[in-house]
Amino acid sequence: xxxxxxxxxxxxxxxxxxxxxxxxxxxxxxxxxxxxxxxxxxxxxxxxxxxxxxxxxxxxxxxxxxxxxxxxxxxxxxxxxxxxxxx
Length: 87
Prior knowledge:
alpha/beta
């Protein structure tokens, strides 16, 4: 799914009362679309979880994204950079 569509779907989910996080590859698109909670990753286009088969890295990306749902008091929208090795 394209970066813009993911951000727009996340924003609509949020408007309907469903918390959402979008994993974004393109900062420019994320800043324009403004998903409620965005995790910006710097991986190759089409690989939002990084290298296929790298379960450790993929779990780290998913955990970072899900942690955005746990943070109370965030001022939405928020766009954070994924920082490898930070858990």
